[in-house]
């Protein structure tokens, strides 16, 4: 029996702490964010999704304008609705949709129960991350929909880490 056969196929994900999520946002900051950057980041997300056969839709907005959108095999129109709802959370709160939801859970409640915002318009579920420019602030959002919310969040963070590493 090879060692790979003894490895479990599923390892439960450890939910990131508020501190870890906030540290991600402090770390993942752009020097600038152009149309070309949106194309390159979106293309990286699509490439990673294709490698994993992830059934996701990818979206990048800046200042109210959609700069990139792609829907991979297995995604559905519902993913576009989730993207819009998660993106609105980033635009309103200036933080990742997963962090916003986590803040409510840390208070012993939920975003849906306590935010007083329409859940058909806003979703504090993982997958939308702020595009923050150094010295400027949040100017947009990169959003993925199609995986469980923690996986959507981690997928965007991984792509941002790769992208920003190349930009140094």
What would you note in describing this structure?
- This protein has seven helices and four strands; from the N terminus they run αααββαααββα.
- Helix 3 crosses helix 7 (149-166).
- It is of the alpha+beta class.
- The chain has helices spanning 3-6, 18-27, 35-52, 77-93, 97-106, 111-114, 149-166, and strands at residues 57-62, 65-71, 128-133, 137-145.
- A four-stranded antiparallel sheet has the order 2-1-4-3.
Topology of helices and strands:
Elements: H1 3-6, H2 18-27, H3 35-52, E1 57-62, E2 65-71, H4 77-93, H5 97-106, H6 111-114, E3 128-133, E4 137-145, H7 149-166
Antiparallel strand pairs: 1-2, 1-4, 3-4
Helix pairs in contact: 3-7
Largest sheet entry: 4 strands, antiparallel
Report strand order across the widest sheet: 2-1-4-3
| First-residue to last-residue Cα separation | 44 Å
Rg over CA atoms, rounded to whole Å, is 16 Å
What would the average pLDDT be, to the nearest integer?
A: 92
Query: What portion of residues belong to β-strands?
Result: 15-25%
């Amino acid at each position: 029996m090879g060692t790979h056969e003894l490895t479990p196929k599923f390892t439960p994900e450890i939910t990131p702490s508020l501190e870890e999520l906030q540290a991600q946002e402090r770390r993942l900051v752009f020097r600038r964010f152009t149309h070309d950057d949106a194309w390159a980041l979106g293309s990286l997300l699509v490439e990673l999704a294709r490698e994993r056969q992830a059934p996701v839709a990818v979206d990048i907005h800046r200042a109210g304008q959609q700069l990139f959108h792609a829907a991979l095999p297995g995604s559905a129109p519902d993913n576009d609705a989730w993207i819009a709802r998660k993106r609105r959370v980033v635009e309103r709160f200036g933080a990742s949709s997963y962090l916003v939801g986590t803040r409510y859970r840390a208070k012993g409640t939920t975003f849906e129960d306590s935010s007083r915002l329409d859940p058909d318009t806003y979703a504090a579920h993982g997958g939308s991350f702020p595009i923050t420019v150094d010295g400027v602030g949040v100017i947009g959002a990169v959003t993925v929909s199609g995986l469980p919310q923690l996986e959507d969040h981690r997928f965007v963070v991984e792509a941002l880490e790769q992208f920003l590493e190349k930009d140094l």
